[in-house]
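Lecture notes, part 5. Sequence design as translation. It can be helpful to think of inverse folding as translation between two languages: the language of shapes and the language of residues. The source text, in structure tokens, appears below.
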């Protein structure tokens, strides 16, 4: 009898906390991202609101600014397009069709071209993507209302609905767009495309005179890489992409990695320069050969390659399965092997002013990625944690407009994560305590290997509520997400399964 009572008590002592954990891990069917997480203000001075009043956070007070109010200037757009999304079957290789999502009938969708300073207006129409869709402008520091995150900056656009995105393309560079509703599925199925912002005529080039001359008449080659099932494609087609470039002239190959893992890129048959990373020019990019550039998920790398003088070809190898072939008349060439050495952006190029002083940061945060046993939405397992919390109880980093912010991204989770902050570019200060010594390394998609810690900094100059998540999108779905919020900004949108908004 006594034994049974003791056994019962022991069982209860184990079960009751488990049931409680299970219960409290349930993700609400509908919730506001500003009220879900663990608010963190970092170390730094007292927070003041946008209009200078003392610290109120989000909430529903009258002084608060809604994300809806954070918009581009009014006026006629310089670039205006309509993008219509559809669910349809697409032939990737002759004879092989896949279930895909298209933009204006193709996947990837059309490459959107703008010139620096242009006001861009995209009318997005969802013709037939079930469950709704959005467009997010990956790497573009858009005003928050145009960020395209379902449940944070807008509601998912239902079938038959539309939404207008407006932003100024203030930074020249290579970007991409993709849906941010059920993104792990919609991105994989191709609801995406490239975005190229050309420098305004006469804009200075960060690479000295010879680079400027080569860039000036380089053939511009967007190279969006995406897997449809097992097939790796470049600009929607498997195999090589030949580009006709006369000997001595250069091609600027804009590599965009839209997949969930890293994409190693190298050049066979010529030297190259890495002239831009994540849309930002590299300062004084030296010529290198036999080095692989590792492009993180979501990241971009612009390679400048001169067509060989002897009329042979240079192969910009995209992971080894396909290549951009730079040369004359699309001459065929044999694939080349990945070089052993890797180009390290931490030491590549030469230093230049950062435009911020990280030694005088107003706020500093830790973003520690871990993995721990527990419950997530009632499911037991090993789950991602951010600063020890499991989704949706993940951090909400709060900043004030104008803050210089430092963040240490520390990965102790056993696998690498490509970390992506919306609405801002961060500059890498150090990796594992080793200070950056090359060109300023501005990034929006940063591969943080297991056991690595990156110190980064940015200026909080774009008010809103912004996601800060892993761009290995299945990881994001599993809760590897946090947010950045400016004091005094609120969102009227809700996420969660009952809300219809499921950004990841
Ligand atoms: Cu490219 Cu939050 O995403
Ligand atoms: Cu990840």
């Amino acid at each position: 009898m006594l034994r049974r009572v003791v056994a019962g008590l022991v069982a209860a002592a184990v079960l009751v906390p488990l049931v409680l954990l299970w219960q409290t891990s349930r993700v609400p069917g509908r919730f506001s991202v500003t009220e879900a997480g663990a608010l963190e203000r970092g170390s730094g001075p007292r927070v003041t609101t946008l209009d200078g009043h003392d610290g109120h956070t989000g909430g529903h007070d009258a002084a608060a600014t809604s994300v809806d109010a954070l918009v581009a200037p009014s006026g006629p757009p310089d670039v205006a397009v309509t993008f219509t999304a559809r669910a349809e079957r697409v032939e990737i290789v002759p004879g092989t069709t896949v279930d895909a999502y298209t933009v204006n009938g193709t996947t990837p969708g059309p490459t959107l071209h703008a010139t620096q300073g242009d006001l861009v207006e995209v009318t997005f129409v969802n013709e037939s993507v079930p469950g709704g869709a959005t467009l997010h402008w990956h790497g573009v520091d858009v005003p928050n209302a145009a960020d395209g995150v379902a449940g944070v900056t807008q509601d998912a656009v239902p079938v038959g609905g539309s939404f207008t995105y407006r932003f100024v393309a203030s930074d020249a560079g290579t970007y991409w767009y993709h849906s941010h509703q059920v993104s792990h599925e919609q991105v994989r199925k191709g609801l995406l495309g490239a975005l190229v912002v050309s420098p305004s005529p006469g804009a200075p080039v960060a690479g000295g005179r010879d680079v400027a001359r080569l860039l000036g008449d380089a053939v511009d080659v967007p190279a969006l890489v995406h897997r449809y099932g097992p097939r790796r494609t470049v600009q929607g087609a498997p195999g090589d992409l030949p580009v006709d470039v006369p000997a001595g002239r250069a091609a600027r190959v804009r590599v965009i990695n839209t997949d969930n893992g890293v994409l190693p890129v190298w050049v066979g048959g010529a030297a190259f320069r890495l002239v831009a990373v994540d849309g930002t020019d590299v300062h004084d990019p030296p010529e290198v050969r036999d080095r692989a550039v590792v492009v993180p998920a979501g990241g971009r790398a612009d390679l400048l390659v001169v067509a060989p003088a002897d009329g042979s070809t240079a192969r910009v190898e995209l992971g080894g399965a396909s290549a951009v072939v730079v040369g004359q008349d699309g001459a065929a060439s044999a694939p080349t092997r990945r070089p052993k050495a890797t180009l390290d952006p931490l030491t590549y190029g030469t230093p230049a002013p950062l435009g911020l002083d990280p030694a005088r940061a107003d706020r500093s945060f830790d973003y520690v990625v871990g993995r721990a046993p527990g419950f997530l939405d009632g499911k037991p397992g090993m789950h991602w944690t951010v600063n020890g919390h499991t989704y949706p109880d993940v951090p909400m980093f709060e900043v004030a407009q104008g803050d210089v912010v430092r963040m240490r991204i520390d990965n102790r989770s056993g696998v690498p994560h490509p970390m992506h902050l919306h609405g801002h570019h961060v500059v890498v200060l150090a990796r594992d305590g080793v200070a950056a010594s090359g060109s300023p390394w501005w990034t929006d998609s940063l591969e943080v290997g297991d056991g690595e810690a990156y110190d980064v900094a940015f200026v909080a100059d774009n008010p809103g509520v912004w996601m800060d998540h892993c761009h290995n999108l299945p990881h994001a779905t599993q809760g590897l997400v946090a947010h950045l919020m400016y004091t005094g900004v609120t969102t009227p949108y809700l996420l969660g399964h009952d809300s219809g908004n499921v950004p990841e």
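The translated text above is only one of many valid answers, since several sequences can fold into similar shapes. The pocket of copper (II) ion (ligand 2) is lined by residues 417, 470, 472, 475, 480 (CB under 6 Å).
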